[in-house]
Design a protein that fits this description.
Number of helices: 11
Number of strands: 16
Order of helices and strands: EEEEHEEEEEEHHEHEHEHEHEHEHHH
CATH topology of the largest domain: Rossmann fold
Largest sheet: 6 strands, parallel
Number of domains: 3
CATH architecture of the largest domain: 3-Layer(aba) Sandwich
Strand order of the largest sheet: 13-12-11-14-15-16
Radius of gyration: 32 Å
Structural class: alpha/beta
Helix content: 40-55%
């Protein structure tokens, strides 16, 4: 006959690590005789003499320390220990939270089909807030490494020229603007449909600033269509600043930057109309696009204009690639402002991010090999908790 399950004796109680206080953790070894019908009753009292009240119930089939590697680490032995966090209990005045700096007493009872057995081992503990969450040290280390890379490359960029992979679409900008100047036709800059809070729109505005400076220098007309008033206002200020930088503030016309429509297909129809009527020599489409991308690019290709597009919407890239002369793919849109300006801080940031990506790729390869060989330790280092 199998011996009955008895309350655990090797019970430990301590402040829950890596938290802001108000929690006490208890751990105890698994009992091989326990089954899914066995329940541990964790009781609490504000003094060792009681009264003890049930604060939590834990099934013998769960709550193993191995399920919380962020708190208890990694190890096969953790599968043989239970845990529970106590943050509140039913006191004499109703629900009461655990108070930091106050000592509480605990014992663990066992409830089975045969009844409840009271635990005799009483342990004491008090909670306290922790200044640091040690489980997130890996995040700190990675942040310092990547930040150091970026700062280091910025310093290097100030002393010598950094080499960046050639981006054909950006190299072709001067060609497209030069062609528009020779033909005496305008350049049409088309924003995507995201608002000003989105990264693709911010990247598009940065590119617009470089394009506007060139058109000011070449004395070429520039038309900018925006999807909403905020993007329009930011674009107006960007173009104005570029014209001033080029020494042509008198050539700036805010009426050339406008909102044709705030609705998706109305916007597309209005822009297509501009393409067909005015026949700009160059179409520059930057930002995040949706289904209207094919309509715009197809219409633009029929007018004979040079088309340069850039988007991080991977679902729309095939349409731009097949209908435009040059396409910026994904992150090339973000790199464009650094590529065009050559400004040390932007170039250094770009190279630093590339360095961080190279490190992550190397870690992915190494981690895959080690995990395949049954050594998952590297994956633990990069696990977020």
């Amino acid at each position: 006959m199998m011996e009955p399950v008895v309350p655990p004796v090797a019970v430990e109680a301590f402040d829950t690590p890596d938290d802001d206080g108000g929690s006490i953790t208890l751990t105890w070894p698994k009992d091989a005789r326990a089954n899914a019908n066995t329940t541990y009753l964790i009781t609490i009292a504000e003094s060792g003499s009681g009264p003890f009240r049930v604060a939590a119930e834990v099934s013998a089939a769960g709550n193993f320390m191995a399920e919380q590697p962020g708190l208890f680490g990694h190890g096969d032995e953790l599968k043989d220990f239970h845990y529970v966090h106590i943050e509140e209990f039913a006191g004499a005045k109703g629900k009461q939270p655990i108070e930091d700096g106050k000592t509480y007493s605990f014992h663990i009872d066992v409830r089975t089909a045969g009844g409840t057995i009271r635990g005799k081992t009483i342990v004491d503990a008090e909670s306290a807030g922790n200044l640091f969450n040690m489980a997130k040290v890996n995040n700190l280390v990675l942040t310092l490494v990547f930040s150091g890379l970026i700062l280091g490359y910025i310093v290097i960029a100030r002393t010598r020229t950094l080499k960046i992979r050639r981006i054909a679409g950006l190299e072709a900008l001067d060609e497209a603007l030069g062609r528009a100047t020779e033909m005496g036709k305008p350049v049409l800059f088309i924003h995507g449909l995201r608002d000003m809070s989105q990264i693709p729109t911010i990247a598009a505005v940065n590119i617009l600033g470089r394009v506007a400076k060139r058109t000011a220098e070449y004395d070429t007309a520039l038309r900018v269509v925006a999807p909403d008033p905020v993007v329009m206002s930011v674009s107006q200020e960007t173009v104005k600043a570029s014209y001033i930088e080029a020494g042509r503030p008198d050539a700036f016309n805010p009426d050339h930057i406008f909102v044709p429509s705030t609705e998706q297909f109305s916007y597309a129809a209005a822009v297509e109309g501009i393409m067909v009527r005015d026949k700009p020599a160059a179409h520059i489409m930057m930002g995040y696009f949706y289904a209207e991308s094919l309509l715009l690019a197809e219409t633009g290709s029929t007018t004979g204009a040079i088309q340069i597009a850039g988007t991080d919407a991977f679902t729309q890239l095939p349409f731009f690639v097949t209908t435009c002369d040059y396409t910026l793919l994904g992150e090339e849109l973000y790199a464009a402002s650094a590529y065009l300006s050559g400004e040390p801080r932007m170039l250094g940031s770009l190279k630093g991010q590339d360095g961080g990506k190279a490190i992550l790729l190397a870690v992915l390869v190494l981690g895959t090999l080690l995990a395949t060989l049954g050594m998952p330790h590297l994956t633990h280092v990069f696990t977020p908790y």
